[in-house]
């Protein structure tokens, strides 16, 4: 940690406590819960802070884009001219995700499930 930063943080926490700004926080008196158990223990708190601030790890952000694109694709009519363009975008996002993960069996399974999902939607 940056020298002196910890002391500044402690002072601000104490001031907030004195003003009563920490009296009615959600979850007060309960241990923190972490949604993603795959994050190493030493990174969980920083991961939670970033997530609460709206920042996601690149892989999760990409999964979010994939979900949004799939939802958009599902709303389009079968003969829509946009459908081909959106499908190409979705294919690109999956390729990007698989590249981030490497060529693991997990990414291959993910791709197979995706193909099954698309076939069901097109039927």
Q: Provide the number of structural domains.
A: 2
Strand/helix succession:
HHHHH
Structural class: mainly alpha
Separation of termini?
55 Å
Describe the structure.
- It is a single chain.
- The model has no long low-confidence stretch (mean pLDDT 77).
- Helix 3 runs antiparallel to helix 4.
- This protein has 2 domains: 5-52, no CATH class; 58-122, no CATH class.
- The radius of gyration is 22 Å and the shape is elongated.
- The protein has helices at 5-19, 44-52, 58-75, 81-101, 105-122.
- The chain is built from 5 helices and no strands.
- The protein is 66% helix and 0% strand.
- The protein is mostly helical.
In short:
With 123 residues, the protein is mostly helical.
Detail the topology: elements first, then pairings.
Blueprint: H1 5-19, H2 44-52, H3 58-75, H4 81-101, H5 105-122
Helix pairs in contact: 3-4
Which labels suit this protein?
123 residues, mainly alpha
